[in-house]
């Protein structure tokens, strides 16, 4: 099994994916253990002094004015975890919780939080044992970090609350720790606060969203090319010299992908022939690289933000290298929240343009010779009429999900925390949007491949043939009389989600950008 070693300088997006989705083991480097011990010595020294230090010997948030004596500090740390584990609603997905735990451990390992090495090691042990705390949908305002979700994780470290075992069964966390031979932690000064004061949930979801969108944008370039082919459009608009004069990198990449898919097609270039010659293809076809490319450039910016966060130590207060413990506002989720919302906007627009191409394929007045709704016997058969309805419903929801969460703020903690990021909410709705986008691309794939197969006497591009053959091998039927559509659409959705469309095409085109 793969192992990810955490040092003091952060981690990588791939490490997050490996731990969250693929169960990679986590180890602490000797450098991290030493940094943890050094920072802890600083906290212990401050704890011994009579002067109050936030997070060490005071209450929290609006209650920070109260000085807490030595005899109550262990209780203080337990209490912050218990009281902040106040989430409600459905359970959050296992991969999100694993990312949350791993990224909090990443910050702890930086040596800026003052957490003891043995607590950090217990966090790694819980991940490696496949124990996943039960975290709920609602509870984070994205500032001070993802408090409630992280608190549920910290509660499990204490042997309290519920967690899912490696067998997928939810049990009391204490039972699962005992079965794995892991001793519950007894939190000391500052440790309770340090375990729940970060942007780890929204960051983990951002990193996984970027991985999913990378596959989806390549898939969307392929389906856009297939739709262009089915509509007998022109590939001339994809040529590199046209995109070089508007030098957006994502646009050039999308155009190059589409051109690679269409290489060798006999269906393209007929747009000026026939009874109704076209001077230009419709925007949804001709401008596909511009829309998908803008989304790709948005992803590049979001990845830059994610990489900066992965190199960060998000906590309050933090232990600096000079031994000072300083309050700060680095837990505010605005940088992550903004790009999560930006990605939801880009995803909604990509879904919208894909739906317009599908509608064009189904409309006999605009499909340039294809049968109405790609039906076998239109009138007796309805073809893909209602598949487009489903796609339209998904697009409509994506537009609602594109409304920015980060533009909202609800004051909390008796106005001490009077401006919050809502980054967790932005991340949750982006996950929903990505699922919808995958379904939208799957419907376009279903329609475009059927449209190509109905162009009798013309040979599609080799890459298109590879895509069609792989889709049919996955159990998705081609043209013919009406059939129960839902299973076909579900299979197409799974095909795209697994990256099988990209995998089918790349042996012909070479790696897509």
Model description:
- There is one protein chain.
- The protein has helices at 13-22, 30-47, 73-84, 94-109, 117-128, 147-157, 173-179, 191-194, 200-230, 240-244, 249-262, 283-286, 288-310, 334-362, 385-401, 423-453, 462-473, 485-497, 500-509, and strands spanning 3-6, 25-28, 88-91, 132-133, 136-138, 162-164, 170-172, 318-319, 325-326.
- With 513 residues, the protein is mostly helical.
- It folds into two domains: 3-198, Fumarase C, Chain B, domain 1; 205-311 and 346-407 and 421-509, Fumarase C, Chain A, domain 2 (Up-down Bundle), CATH 1.20.200.
- The strands form four sheets. A three-stranded antiparallel sheet has the order 4-6-7.
- The longest helix is centred in the middle third of the chain and has 31 residues, at 200-230.
- The radius of gyration is 26 Å and the shape is elongated.
- Belongs to the PAL/histidase family.
- Keywords: Cytoplasm, Histidine metabolism, Lyase.
- Its EC number is 4.3.1.3.
Number of helices: 19
Largest beta sheet, briefly?
3 strands, antiparallel
Give the structural class: mainly alpha
Give the ordered list of helices and strands: EHEHHEHHEEHEEHHHHHHHEEHHHHHH
Instruction: Let me know the average pLDDT.
Output: 95
Rg calc: 26 Å
CATH superfamily of the largest domain: Fumarase/aspartase (Central domain)
Enzyme class: lyase
Pfam families: Lyase_aromatic (PF00221)
Subcellular location: Cytoplasm
Pathway: Amino-acid degradation; L-histidine degradation into L-glutamate; N-formimidoyl-L-glutamate from L-histidine: step 1/3
């Amino acid at each position: 099994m793969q192992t990810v070693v955490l040092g003091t300088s952060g981690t990588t997006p791939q490490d997050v994916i490996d731990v969250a989705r693929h169960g990679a083991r986590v180890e602490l480097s000797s450098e991290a253990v030493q940094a943890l011990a050094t920072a802890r010595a600083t906290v212990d020294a401050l704890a011994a002094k009579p002067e109050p230090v936030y997070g060490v010997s005071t209450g929290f948030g609006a209650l920070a004015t109260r000085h807490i004596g030595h005899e109550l500090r262990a209780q203080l740390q337990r209490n912050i975890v218990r009281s902040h584990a106040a989430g409600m609603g459905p359970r959050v997905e296992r991969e999100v919780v694993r990312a949350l735990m791993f990224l909090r451990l990443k910050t702890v390992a930086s040596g800026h939080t003052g957490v003891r090495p043995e607590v950090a090691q217990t966090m790694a042990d819980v991940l490696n044992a496949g124990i996943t705390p039960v975290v709920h949908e609602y509870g984070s305002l994205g500032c001070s970090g993802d408090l409630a979700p992280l608190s549920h994780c910290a509660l499990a470290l204490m042997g309290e609350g519920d967690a899912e075992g490696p067998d997928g069964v939810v049990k009391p966390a204490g039972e699962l720790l005992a079965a794995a031979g892991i001793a519950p932690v007894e939190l000391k000064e500052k440790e309770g606060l340090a375990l729940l004061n970060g942007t780890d949930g929204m960051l983990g979801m951002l990193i996984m969203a970027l991985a999913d969108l990378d596959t989806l944008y390549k898939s969307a370039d392929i389906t856009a090319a297939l739709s262009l082919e089915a509509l007998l459009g022109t590939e001339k608009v994809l040529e590199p010299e046209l995109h070089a004069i508007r030098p957006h990198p994502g646009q050039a990449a999308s155009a190059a992908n589409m051109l690679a898919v269409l290489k060798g097609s006999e269906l393209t270039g007929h747009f000026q022939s026939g009874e109704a010659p076209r001077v230009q293809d419709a925007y949804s076809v001709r401008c596909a690289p511009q829309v998908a490319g803008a989304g790709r450039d948005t992803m590049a910016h979001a990845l830059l933000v994610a990489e900066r966060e992965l190199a960060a130590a998000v906590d309050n207060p933090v232990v600096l290298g000079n031994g000072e413990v300083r309050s700060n506002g680095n837990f505010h989720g605005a940088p992550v929240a903004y790009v999560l919302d930006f990605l939801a906007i880009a995803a909604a627009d990509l879904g919208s343009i894909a739906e317009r191409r599908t509608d064009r394929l189904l409309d006999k007045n605009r499909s340039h010779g294809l049968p109405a709704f790609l039906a076998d016997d239109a009138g007796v058969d309805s073809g893909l009429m209602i598949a487009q309805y489903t796609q339209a419903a998904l697009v409509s929801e994506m537009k609602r999900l594109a409304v920015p969460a980060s533009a909202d703020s609800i004051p909390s903690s008796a106005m001490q925390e009077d401006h919050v990021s809502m980054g967790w909410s932005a991340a949750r709705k982006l996950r929903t949007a990505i699922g919808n986008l995958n379904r939208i691309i799957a419907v376009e794939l279903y329609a475009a491949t059927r449209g190509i197969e109905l162009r009798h006497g013309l040979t599609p591009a080799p890459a298109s043939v590879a895509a069609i053959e792989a889709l049919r091998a996955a159990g998705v039927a081609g043209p013919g009389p009406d059939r129960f559509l839902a299973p076909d659409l579900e299979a197409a959705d799974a095909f795209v989600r697994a990256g099988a469309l990209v995998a089918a095409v790349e042996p012909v085109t070479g790696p897509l950008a």
